[in-house]
Structures are given as C-alpha cells and as structure tokens.
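Protein data sheet
==================
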Amino acid sequence: MHLIQVDSVQRWMEDLKLMTDCECMCILQSKPISIEKDEQNELILSSQYSTCDNLQLLLKRAWIISTELTRIAQKLEKNRWQRVHSMTVRLNCHVRSMINEYSAFTRSSSEETHQLEKLLVEKCSEFTAFTERCLQTEDEEILKSMKSCVNETLTTVAQYFGQLIELVLTQEAQTLLRQMELSGSLYVTESALSGLFSLAQEGAHLCRIIAKEGGVVALFKICRQDCFRCLYPQTLRTLASICCVEEGMHQLEKVDGILCLADILTDTSHSEATHAEAAAVIAQITSPHLTFTQHLSSFLENMEEIVTALVKLCQEASSGEVFLLASAALANITFFDTMACEILLQLNAVKILLAACSDKHIVDTPYSRDQVVTILANMSVLDQCASEIIQGNGVQLLMEMLFEKSSSGNPAEAAACERVQQKSAVTLARLSRDPEVAEAAVKLSCIPRLIKLCRSPTERNNSDSVLVACLAALRRLAVMSPDGLEDSDFQQLVKPRLVDSFLLCTNMEESFV
C-alpha cells in the first residue's frame, strides 16, 4: 500500500481548485437572498476527498450532478423558479468542472466522448438561459407553457449526462482491462487490478459494465498464471464483487470459472488468503438471494471437491474472517443443493463446526454463528444428523444461540442475532423429532427459554420470524415433554392454531411477562 503524506496547506490548495469554479459562480451570480432554508442542501466536494484518485473524483462529481438533477425536478414541480434557476446555474458549473477534470487526467478521449461533452454543455447553457427567462416572466399562462419546455430540456440534459457517464466509465474499464491484458509487469497489473476493484465497489451498474467488457475473462486469465500468484487474493476479491450481477455469472460459466476455483481451493500450495478469497467467490455465486444461479451446471460437477476443501478451510482457519468466508460458502451451498448436506455428514462437518464454535477467536461474531447455524438447520432434515449433534454437544450450542444478543446495537448485527435465534429454534424443532435430542433440550431448559422468546418481544428484538420458529420448536418439544409447560403456556402457546398463538404473542405488552 502506497501512502502519500500531504500537509494540510497543500491539501487545502488542491481542494480549492475543485471548489472555486463552482462556488464563485453560484455566490457571485446566482445565489439569491431568500427566506428558503435550502442552503444546507447545496452540495460541494469536501476536503476529505482530496486524496482520492481521479476516477473516484469523477464518480463523486457525477453523483452530485445526479442529485442536483433530481432536486431541480422537485423544485420545478413546485414552480419554485428562483430556486430552479440558481440550481441550474450550479448544475452548469458542476458539469463543466466534471468535463474539465476528466479531460485533465484521461489519457485519450474518443470522438464520441467529445461529441457528447459538447452536446451536454450546450444543452446545460440552453437550460440555464431558459430558466432565466422564466425568472423574468410573471405571467402565469406563459410560465405554464414554458414549463413543459423546461421539463423537456431537463430530461435531455439528464439523458446526455447519463450517456456521457456510461461512455466514460466504459472507456475507463476498457483501459484498465487492456493494461491487465497486455502488461506482463506485476506492478502494472496490480495497479490495474486496484482500479478495477475500486470501480466494482461503486455498485451493480459498474459491475455490469466491467462484465460486459470482458472483466471476468481477464481476471480468470490472471488466476491461471503462476507468475501472478501473489495477486490471486486481490484478483479473486474483484471477481467476487463483479459476480454479484447476472452478466458476471454468465461470463464465469463461459470460462469454466467453477473449475478454476475448485483447482485453487484444492491446491494446498496456495496461501490461506487465496483460499479464503476463493471461498468468498463461491459464497457470492451460490448466494440464495440471487435468482440467476440455476445455470451453474458445472458447479454440481465440482461440488464434492469444493465442499471438501471448504470444510478443511473451516477446520484450519487461523482467523475469524477466514472461517466466516468458508462457512458462508458452505451455508449457501446447503441451500443450493441438498446433496451438499450428505457430503457434509460424510466429512464429519458437524463435529468440525461445533468444535470451531467453542473457539471464541475463530467464531467471534454473530455473523459467523449465523453461518454455522444455517448449515446445521439445513443438515437437520437428515435423520443421521441428530446423532452427530448429540455427540458434539450441539444441543447445548443451540440453546446458547437462543440467547444471542447484539452488544453494539448496530442494525446489521442485530439482524444477524435475529437470524441466529430463528435458525437455532428451527434446528431444534427439526431435530426434536428424535427423542434423544428432545430429551437433551428439555434437560437444558430450552422450553422456558422458548416461552420467554415467545412472550417477550424485546428478547427477540420484536422479530416475527423468531416468534414463529420458537412457537414451532415449543410445540415439538411439548409433544415429547408435556410436563415441562405450565397450563397457561400450554393453553396459549401450544393448544391453539399456530396463527392464533402468533397473534396473541404479537399483541402482548411487555408488562404481561
């Protein structure tokens, strides 16, 4: 990582270049003295972005312009002509600044880019002139007729802007990919990889552009060259980002990407970091949230060796992050195909996962426990799983997971805790068809805890999914051990239809407990 030390004065001087051409125009020519409190909504580039690379600067400026276009449309809808005009002038300045900045750092621009830049600048000038005329007109009828023309011009500006940004980003992706393709230099390839990863982090649209331009093909080409072994982790991390979109998945399938990932995972000469990033790609392409994984036919052909390698990675993980990536991939695979659960049983995965949970340095977050309990929940449909859980003291772990609580209050962590509670209850419900598991659960006081989760909304973070899972588990355990419930619990939580018990619990006040 290359760090550049810049003193505060130099940083301010660099920042000043970005701010003056927009701000002086707005302040000296178009900023009205108004009672409207919109000043805090005006957008400028903050000093914290002064050390960002040129592409990040372009994306930041593009985001500002996009936001300004949206706000102009909102003000136009309300006939706030004074604000529309001042914002249009500011938009004009931002567009010109963006074009100047891009021209300053780009190596070469195509004729098509120049043409679009010219059209956009002309249309912005026309837009500013239009709104100025509207500002000088007080006749409501004339303003009404002009409004449609202003709307049409705004739409055209937005269209040209969108086309220009799309073209510029496509050209940048092409440049980076060309560098990777033609360079045999480790340094140049690493630099291009870094730029490509940065682009991919900007969202699904950028990932689609990269995939369409052959990004997945180029990245797998690197992963098949031993001379770039030290770049494998970075390359795989970029692949994981791009494969969140359908275009990336299709490209992965075309270049036999699954086979390449399987080879990397099973090659013991690779570093743990490389194996972990390969696991991250597997986790991404098998995510149950994606709707376009059905075409991954080659995955089934390599599934056994991939699952075997991932289980080994879980067993030998040296950190919580490595375990999280490997277990997340395994969890997704258990959704992807039921055969995976049978393979996991043969590999003694239950024992390995339960052992890992006892090591607080490895399974150290609710996110890791979420992956483990997901695997256990999906495996619990198999009859042989119950004995494995009993032998590994898994019922005790499931009981502990019913107490999962967020320590930070972070919304993402709280959601992970809810999933852990829900899935541990689901696993208990499925496993309790085995009398031995049910007996162990009763001895560990699972029934009182399930009742508490049902009756106390704060215990389950007001989660309805946790409530349903706990009601199902409670009903299963009540069949095996009816003496464990008080009559009121039986009458309210077990005897009625599940939907009636659910409605009763969701309407309970905290003071009821």
